[in-house]
Amino acid sequence: MKKTIIKKGIILATIILSSISLKAQIKYGVQLHGTLNTASFTAETDTSPEKDWKFGYGGGLFAEITVSKAFYLRPSINYLQKGAKVAEDFVIEGGNTSTQESRVNLNYIEVPVVLIYNIGNTSSKWYVGVGPSFGYGISGKAEVFETTHIGSQTHTEFYDAKAFKNIEDGGAGFKRFDFGLNAVVGVHVLEKGMIQLGYIHGLSNIANKDDFQGNKYNNRSIMLTLGYRFK
């Protein structure tokens, strides 16, 4: 059911982006994103892993469709990187220690549909917006670096898996479909440009639950966006 809803959302947002209305004033543009990514997650372990931010980037196309004097709709379609960095320390046999560092790299086609409000009046440079964001994972990788300290010796192992491949096939088992809420605040500059700060709060649990029922993984992304409108 969730997959069907998300699929329909992506199709609807893409149609909105590509449709041409004779009555509405429509502007088109391009945008580039720099992202700081992490995740909210739980796992079936007794440890407390430490999370860190992971840098990413993206870019895409957007449209601005006038709704009223102060409001307009901004659908867009983007390539966007998400993911997280995680570190865990373990005590193993003989009182020795092991450190496991994981990096999750996820690449999405992301389709947010944001309702924008010009603060104050139609000529205001500042704006805020909120709306849903639909994602589809196209590629990615989960990497694990494990360092074991036994006495004075150090042993390091590395292994990786394709993020969206099934676990039984050697992958990490992440689900491709992602849904979240997108909030933005920005300013129009030099007539056709914009600088925007945004946040995507992932609501979908994309972790594999078939083998590990207690696992949860929700994407979190902060974005700095530079945009330019052609019309």
Automatic annotation (TrEMBL):
<dbReference type="InterPro" id="IPR025665">
    <property type="entry name" value="Beta-barrel_OMP_2"/>
</dbReference>
<dbReference type="Pfam" id="PF13568">
    <property type="entry name" value="OMP_b-brl_2"/>
</dbReference>
<feature type="domain" description="Outer membrane protein beta-barrel">
    <location>
        <begin position="26"/>
        <end position="207"/>
    </location>
</feature>
<protein>
    <recommendedName>
        <fullName>Outer membrane protein beta-barrel domain-containing protein</fullName>
    </recommendedName>
</protein>
